[in-house]
Specification:
This protein is an alpha+beta fold. The protein folds into 2 domains: 282 residues, Bira Bifunctional Protein, Domain 2 (BirA Bifunctional Protein, domain 2, 2-Layer Sandwich), CATH 3.30.930.10; 95 residues, Anticodon-binding domain (Rossmann fold, 3-Layer(aba) Sandwich), CATH 3.40.50.800. Helix content is 43%, strand content 19%. It has an 8-stranded mixed beta sheet. The longest helix has 20 residues. The model has no long low-confidence stretch (mean pLDDT 90).
């Protein structure tokens, strides 16, 4: 038999896994709704000119491009195929690409539907994204993001609200997390005062790797990107500032006194921490001056969430983008959002055994099929169970009892209904609890109540 497989960096999900994923999505969605966010969806593919140039040079390399339909090489000369200019050639033969994230498509959506939207607009979106990344633990080529954004308001109450949402979501999951925040204006100010204003992207891309490769390697990368040794030396005391967040921010005020942008970022962080310090949250929130978030469109506060118990990278991240819609022609519309990585959250919950037991359950009761007459009788009972919201099925074949009970065990079905000639005469059901082995003779309505009570327990 020919061996079949799926592309690296993608995964199949069994029914049990799907039940757990639905638990993740519904938990996050419930919290989004509590704060007034509304759902939207956008296409899996976008025009390449919508995506290119929004994620930085490294992000552009990770875009999955879709070949044009038909003869995609029409209009491409033989000489162009041998020039080695892959980037230019790819834009000629591909006009569309799979979305890299949900934020840029959201910005496009806002511009395209601006006359239908009431600002500030609060939306959430739960859909897959694709990145041509090297697959490894916690890093996939296809994965789901669960985003919440508010656009059309510059208030720092929005950042505070999104951090609250983040804390509530992970508290419901039972995950221990750290929330790290920084501000891109602070990073811009740092680049300015160390004399490397034009190298903000180089600095942020390198700093974003500090947790993965360490300070020494980051310093090497900064020098390899063209920063002077003097500038790298000036950066060290800023990276290594100590004390609580207010002390760090007060010290930064002095360090960044020559940068108007940097001071603005410091003041924004002071205001945000004033909000946060008046809110009792389960997660710790820390100012991390090495946090950069590699995406180029961030302009203000940036947020990253790490699991304390599993090393898997960030499980949630986001930030403020002041003019992402301006790229598409709608100027001066600021937004801020966070994105939960459902696949990494799944891996953490699975590894720590934090999924509720009932999440993995599908069918609640299986009716055993003893024969044609019993089958006809059972078919009259099934609608009542389903009308009560109980997942119910009848075994489709008149197989041996052992086989049918094995089927119930394999699917972790908690109750089995045995309906034979005696039950039909007495108008009752024999309900077997598959965990305890106990059996009860109940009427249809009593059986429904019994299962509903057990489900609540």
């Amino acid at each position: 038999m020919k061996k079949v497989n799926i592309p690296k960096g993608t995964r199949d999900y069994s029914p049990d896994a799907m039940a757990r994923r639905r638990y993740i999505f519904s938990t996050i969605e419930d919290v989004f709704r509590l704060y007034g966010y509304q759902p939207i969806e956008t296409p899996a593919m976008e025009n390449l000119d919508t995506l290119l140039g929004k994620y930085g040079e490294e992000g552009d390399k990770l875009l999955f491009k879709i070949l044009n339909s038909g003869d995609f090489l029409s209009g491409v000369g033989d000489d162009q195929l041998h020039r080695g200019n892959i980037a230019r050639l790819s834009t000629q033969i591909s006009e569309k690409g799979l979305r890299y994230d949900l934020t840029v498509p959201f910005a496009r959506y806002v511009v395209q539907h601006r006359n239908e939207i009431n600002f500030p607009f609060k939306r959430y979106q739960i859909q897959p994204v694709w990145r041509a990344d090297r697959p490894q633990k916690g890093r996939y080529r296809e994965f789901y993001q669960c985003d919440a954004d508010i656009i059309g308001s510059r208030s720092l109450l929005n950042e505070f609200e999104l951090i609250e949402i983040t804390d509530m979501v992970f508290e419901r999951f039972g995950m221990n997390i750290d929330i790290r925040i920084n501000n891109r204006k602070i990073l811009a100010g740092i680049a300015e005062v160390i004399g490397e204003r034009d190298r903000l992207t180089d600095i942020t891309v390198a700093l974003d790797k500090i947790d993965k490769i360490g300070t020494d390697k980051v310093n090497e990368e900064l020098r390899s990107r063209g920063l002077s040794a003097e500038a790298v030396d000036k950066l060290q005391p800023i990276i290594n500032l100590s004390g609580d967040h207010f002390r760090k921010l007060e010290n930064l005020k002095n360090i960044l006194s020559g940068s108007e942008t940097g001071i603005q970022g410091v003041n924004e962080m002071i205001r945000l921490f004033e909000y946060l310090d008046n809110r009792d949250m389960k997660a710790s929130v820390e100012l991390d001056l090495t946090l950069a978030r590699g995406l180029n469109y961030y302009t203000g506060a940036i947020i990253e969430v790490l699991s304390n118990d599993v090393e898997i990278g960030s499980v949630c991240g986001g930030g403020r983008y002041d003019d992402l819609t301006g790229i598409f022609g709608l100027e001066d519309v600021s937004g801020v959002g966070v994105s939960f990585g459902a696949d990494r959250i799944y891996d953490v919950l699975h590894q720590l055994e934090l999924f509720p037991e009932k999440v993995s359950t599908g069918t609640r009761i299986l009716f055993v099929n003893f024969g044609r007459e019993e089958e006809k009788y059972i078919l009259t009972l099934l609608p009542a169970f389903r009308a009560a919201g109980i997942e119910t099925e009848i075994y489709p074949d008149q197989a041996k009892l052992k086989k049918q009970m094995s089927y119930a065990n394999a699917k972790s079905i908690p109750f089995v209904a045995l309906v034979g000639e005696n039950e039909i005469i007495k108008n009752i059901l024999t309900i077997k609890d598959m965990e305890t082995g106990m059996q009860k003779e109940l009427t249809t309505q009593e059986a429904i109540r019994h299962i509903l009570v057990a489900n609540e327990g």
